[in-house]
Specification:
Chain lengths: 245, 236
């Protein structure tokens, strides 16, 4: 990346990539991209390209990690060496370990873990290309992969970030905005149950700004949710259309 | 007290299905007085009972189910069996030998070895214990010939069809014997591998297109066309 841009929002109120303050990046979501995993999904969120795959539920290995009263979720968030500008070591970094935990904990409330005690599911998230907001896109994709694996869920989980750049609260930060901007607030949300499963904040916001950011992020989540649902249905609609021709 | 879907509508997890005086059936759950979907599938409402036929699901053991499994390991007094469920099943040696099992005179791996396939019934299962299998009924036991294919377990009823229309049609057209494991594993035994291939192809197509209408007719047509093609090849 070249040097830091002076201004993140121009005189017309448009951002670096020409978006308005409350505009999402373009999204493309696909479900069932792998045949070997039990469930899978692929998401392109702006320049982010992320794959998610789910195995299970199956017996936990090693067995001592299983719990007598509920299913165990395991999650690995991993960035490919070529996902960022400077080669990233493929070994799990501190950040990846943290994000694995964050993604797992934001998905867990959506899954009926108490139905299948002593079992476990494995969620693998591979970031092929990163451009800010990978945790949110990962959660959106992983939730779809879980649904695709046929694991009972309370609701799909959608995630989206809002933040503050140049004294303005905006939706869906990209990499430069995240780095140069003032604050970043990722939110994961279950739209039908109206419940937040992840709320983080990085930076400084006043209480009013924080509230605005959360509300904006939730609005963003709701928009993504429509596309997420559509992606899940499309897989079966296509088959149906072809078959009934 | 409305419902929010049309019959056989495709829904995703979390979608609101009904509100008020309804009963949450399969693959749905209740929160307050609202019923939501918990899997992707097709909803139906029958006499205040909202049920969802899942398009994606895995097998959960139920006592009395006939399943087809693979021997994973030969143990000290039995075998562990993979039944394509979240839990591995156990088959006791005394079940198979139908007499008390004595470790000094019986070599278990000569009866069933790792990798062998068996047809069995679930004898017991609950939340706290792994399922136990039994082979003490006619038609159960080691599989010696045929081929297996796997489908989504919830689609087994579709493979059977209304009053067995689909399965009997496939059997008739291909001349194969078909055993359906409720865990989604299907055994096809025919006179020759070609017949088995044909039956398996039909079953896989049902798995893919289970949620579409007019399926039985399409499968019949497919089987007839394939049979013609194969005969032409033979005559060439």
């Amino acid at each position: 990346m070249s040097e830091k841009p002076e201004k993140l929002i121009d005189k017309k109120g448009l951002r670096l990539d020409g978006r308005k303050a409350d505009e999402l990046r373009p999204l493309k979501i696909e479900v069932g991209v792998f045949s070997n995993a039990d469930g899978s999904a692929y998401i392109e969120h702006g320049k982010n390209k992320i794959l998610a795959a789910v195995f299970g539920p199956k017996e936990m290995h090693p067995k001592h990690l299983s719990l007598p009263d509920r299913m165990v979720l395991r999650c690995r968030y991993h960035m490919a060496p070529f996902s960022v500008q400077e080669r990233k070591s493929p070994a799990p970094s501190r950040r990846e370990v943290e994000l694995s935990k964050v993604i797992r904990e934001s998905l867990e409330p959506a899954v009926f873990v108490d139905l299948y005690p002593r079992s476990g599911i494995d969620i693998y998230v591979e970031v092929l290309q990163a451009d800010g907001g990978t945790r949110c896109a990962s959660i959106t994709a992983a939730a779809l992969a879980i649904a695709d694996a046929g694991i009972p869920m309370r609701d799909l989980v959608v995630a989206c970030a809002a933040g503050k750049i140049d004294d303005k609260v905006v939706l869906d930060l990209m990499d430069t905005e995240d780095k140069v901007g003032v604050a970043d607030v990722p939110v994961a949300f279950m739209p039908n149950l109206n419940a937040v499963t992840l709320l983080q904040m990085d930076g400084v916001l006043t209480p009013e700004e924080f509230e605005n950011a959360v509300n904006l992020a939730i609005e963003g989540c709701k928009k993504i949710y429509v596309m997420q649902k559509e992606a899940l249905k499309t897989k079966y609609m296509n088959v149906k259309a072809e078959a009934e021709e | 007290m409305p419902t929010f879907f049309e019959k056989k509508q495709l829904v995703t997890p979390g979608e609101l299905l009904a509100e008020g005086d309804y009963v949450a059936g399969e693959n749905t759950y209740m929160e307050g007085n609202k019923i939501y979907a918990s899997r992707i599938g097709l909803v139906d409402c029958d006499n205040k009972n909202v049920t969802l036929v899942a398009l994606r699901a895995f097998y959960v053991p139920k006592v009395g189910d006939m399943v087809i499994g693979t021997v994973l390991e030969v143990g000290f007094n039995g075998w562990t069996i993979n039944i394509e469920a979240p839990y591995t099943a156990l088959l006791r040696a005394s079940e198979v030998l139908s007499r008390p099992f004595k470790p000094q005179n019986d070599e278990l791996s000569q009866v069933l070895n790792a990798g062998d396939l068996i047809v069995a019934k679930i004898a017991s299962y609950d939340r706290a214990h792994d399922p136990q299998l039994t082979v003490g009924e006619p038609g159960l036991g080691k599989i010696t010939r045929g081929q297996i294919t796997k489908v989504t377990p919830t689609k087994i009823p579709r493979v059977i069809g209304r009053k067995g229309s689909m399965i009997s049609m496939i059997k008739q057209e291909t001349g194969c014997q078909i055993i359906l494991g409720l865990n989604g594993v299907i055994l096809v035994t025919g006179k020759n591998p070609e017949d088995e291939e044909l039956a398996m192809m039909a079953i896989r197509k049902i798995d893919e297109e289970s949620h579409t209408s007019g399926l039985t007719d399409r499968i019949t047509q497919l089987l007839k066309e394939e049979k013609l093609k194969r005969e032409e090849k033979k005559n060439e």
